[in-house]
Q: What sequence folds into this?
């Protein structure tokens, strides 16, 4: 299998590639293992919790936690692990996580697929209703609850900040 982490980050000046690891509706988190070239179970979620959208990573990036930069792909479809989508970044939630006394950044990029007719009007994540952003924060807290990770949300920012972060972390 192709090492999906080595694909380019950018399709063109406006769009990124996003690799789906965990599809919308999944009750467990999957991670791509580049050494084995497979998707492996990372962790089950708490009972009743499912991914609200496709979750994955931006290839050829490296975040502070050592993994590729996380991306939540906002669209109404459910795809599959390994699907590569062309997406437009619409924002970022800057996050600091603390585990075993160590703090590090673990930001989440939000993106919209270029072929998603229902979300083409979403240009900035901050245009989502505040309750929708609150729901996403609660989801991130819940997915980390069983790992004793403490999350601190540093703020929601638009597509310009997301693009700068992706460019800074691309290699």
A:
């Amino acid at each position: 299998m192709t090492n999906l982490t080595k694909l380019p980050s950018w399709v063109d000046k406006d769009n990124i590639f996003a690799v789906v690891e965990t599809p919308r509706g999944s009750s467990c988190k999957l991670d791509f293992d580049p050494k084995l070239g497979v998707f492996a179970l990372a962790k089950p979620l708490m009972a009743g919790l499912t991914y609200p959208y496709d979750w994955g990573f931006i290839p050829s990036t490296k975040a502070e936690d050592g993994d590729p930069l996380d991306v939540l792909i906002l669209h109404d479809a459910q795809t599959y692990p390994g699907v590569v989508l062309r997406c437009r970044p619409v924002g970022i939630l800057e996050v600091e996580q603390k585990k075993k006394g160590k703090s590090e950044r673990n930001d989440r990029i939000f993106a919209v697929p270029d072929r998603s007719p229902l979300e083409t009007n979403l240009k900035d994540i901050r245009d989502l209703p505040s309750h929708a952003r609150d729901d996403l924060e609660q989801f991130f807290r819940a997915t980390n609850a069983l790992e004793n990770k403490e999350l601190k949300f540093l703020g929601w920012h638009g597509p310009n900040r997301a693009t700068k972060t992706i460019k800074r972390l691309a290699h």
The chain has a mean pLDDT of 93. The domain at 16-169 is CATH 3.90.80.10 (Inorganic Pyrophosphatase). The chain is about 15% helix and 35% strand. The longest strand covers residues 84-99.
